[in-house]
Design brief:
Number of strands: 38
Largest sheet: 7 strands, antiparallel
Radius of gyration: 27 Å
Shape: globular
Oligomer: single chain
Strand content: over 45%
Structural class: mainly beta
Helix content: under 10%
Length: about 525
């Protein structure tokens, strides 16, 4: 779309300039050879203040252990009620594409979403060597803060995620030759481990019903419910929309409280994947004894039922499967899940929106200067991570919540804890006081993009810039309109990395100085980008 607009506009400018130039030359009786050699656009720079749509979304796909953007191409697939409204940065309508450098920059056509009528997208991402994941977005404004999706690398996992790889041998008919039992290793960061048991004679089939034969690579990944690093990788986040829940509701949004997640993949050397079993196979999951059952308010115990939800890794959809009972096994608590199809599985308590904490929750922040940023992390009564974000407002509003105890922690731009609030019920209005750092400075930035093959085209994007103190991993964000923005809350005379994520992270290192100052960020776009063609 932008290419057509640009071409038409340039053609019109060329036509006007050529007509004017020709008239002047004819009247002056210039030689025809001079006319033919004249370039009326030489030295002219065309400037475009560009954004793909009034509603724009930016995101990054992050390695869950390194917390840095992936360095391999990422396959992006977009689903959900508003997927048909999605356009890329170049203005192309699409719901599937590959991000070469793990960044997403998309727009939404049509009306700007609001809190009363949010747009909804389910974004599924996959990359070689990583376990696929997703995020569910409820978009309620034109320029929401950037999102991130954390993927677990199969060979290098974050705290609280453990992967076991093994081989399952099948006959020429796809039947498992002998009883198979695959158990994830015991790890200090794990509050639970997982065992996959496949009885001999079980036939393994692919999505087309064909047997999967040979020595099959089998991978079992267990995600703890007790570490923040693992919880931040939970597919789709904890507030989402699912196909069906344990209360008979279809296509319903709500919130999960997880007791653990399992990802299982089985495939042969030809990448033929197992999707179904001829008889149930068993997945045994250990449950943390410290987990509070949100339905009883007490520690989980033997006999408690826990709902099981399956996760379709290709589409990011959740579906209720069954309840399983907790049982005591020595000093541990365990559940056994019979499965006949292969997907991800979560032990999770589900609360539909509108049945709990209908008015949401809100914290007023006191002690923070107007316009200055804070980072926040929200935990539930189990001290489980729920969500995180940043804001420059003096309040934080949560509209989609599960009732119960909660804790909100606030951090300064340099990552120091500056305030905390613990409440018995997250619903309603609360106050949190912070002690904000003094003598911080602002930095005014100008962001421009130019094509390597077209120096006469200059773009001033409307986009989020992100910045962090050099040597730290604590990112802040600030929105730049038509290439102009302000980074707030910087330490004086300190080096910061500042940049914009488009076609990779385009950054520079700047010193904040003693007072507010101005800096320029220049992005170089390759000629592979359609806007440069």
């Amino acid at each position: 779309m932008i290419v057509k607009q640009k071409t038409g506009w340039l053609g019109l400018v060329k036509g006007i300039i050529l007509s004017t130039a020709t008239a002047a030359l004819v009247s002056g009786c210039q030689d025809l050879k001079d006319i033919q050699q004249l370039d009326p656009l030489k030295g002219v720079v065309f400037k475009i203040n560009y954004e793909p749509a009034p509603t724009t979304l930016q995101g990054l796909v992050i390695d869950a252990k390194t917390v840095e953007p992936l360095k391999v191409p990422v396959q992006i697939s977009i689903f959900g009620p508003d997927a048909s409204r999605v356009i890329t940065y170049e203005g192309l309508a699409t719901t599937t594409f590959v991000s070469a450098k793990a960044d997403l920059f998309i727009g939404l056509k049509g009306s700007i979403p609001s809190a009363a009528k949010p747009a909804e997208l389910r974004i599924v991402v996959d990359a070689p060597g990583y376990i696929s994941s997703s995020i569910y977005l409820f978009v309620d404004q034109a320029k929401p803060a950037p999102f991130e999706i954390r993927l677990v690398k199969e060979t290098t996992t974050p705290s609280g995620v453990i992967v076991k790889q093994d081989v399952v041998e099948t006959s020429a008919t796809g039947n498992v030759k002998s009883n198979e039992s695959i158990t994830t290793p015991i790890d200090a960061s794990m509050a639970n481990h997982v065992t996959l048991s496949i009885p001999a004679g079980t036939q393994l089939k692919d999505v087309k019903g064909q047997p999967v034969v040979g020595n099959l690579s089998t991978q079992v990944a267990a995600y703890s419910s007790q570490t923040e690093a693992a919880l931040r990788t939970f597919p789709g986040g904890f507030t989402t929309r699912i196909k069906g829940d344990d209360q008979g509701n279809a296509n319903v949004k709500g919130t999960f409280t997880t007791a653990g997640f399992v990802s299982i993949e089985i495939a042969n050397s030809s990448s033929q994947k197992v999707t179904t079993f001829s008889q149930p196979v068993m997945v045994n999951v250990e449950v943390a004894t410290s987990l509070i059952n949100p339905e009883t308010g007490q520690k989980i115990k033997s006999g408690d039922p826990i709902p099981v939800f399956s996760y379709a890794e290709n589409t990011g959809e959740w579906t209720y499967e069954r309840d399983v009972a907790v049982k005591q096994e020595g000093s541990s608590l365990q559940v056994t899940i019979p499965i006949t199809h292969l997907s991800g599985y979560s032990l999770a308590f589900w609360t539909p929106s509108g049945t709990s904490c209908t008015a949401g929750g809100q914290w007023a922040i006191t002690g923070k200067p107007d316009g200055k940023p804070v980072n926040w992390i929200l935990y539930n009564g189990n001290q489980q991570y729920i969500a995180n974000g940043s804001t420059s407002d003096n309040s934080i509003v949560f509209s989609q919540l599960t009732s119960g105890a909660a804790q909100l922690n606030l951090f300064s731009p340099d990552g120091k804890l500056i305030g905390t609030s613990t409440v018995n019920s997250i619903c309603g209005n609360h106050t949190v006081s912070v002690t904000y750092p003094q003598n911080l400075v602002d930095l005014i930035v100008s962001v421009t993009a130019s094509c390597e093959n077209k120096p006469d085209l200059q773009i001033s994007p409307s986009a989020w810039a992100r910045y962090r103190k050099v040597g730290t991993s604590n990112w802040q964000q600030s929105f730049c309109t038509a290439g102009q923005g302000k980074l707030v809350g910087l330490e004086p005379s300190t080096d910061y990395e500042v940049g914009v994520d488009y076609n990779g992270f385009n950054s520079i290192v700047v010193n904040s100085g003693q007072t507010t100052s101005n800096k320029s960020i220049e992005i170089k776009l390759t000629n592979a980008i359609s806007i440069c063609q």
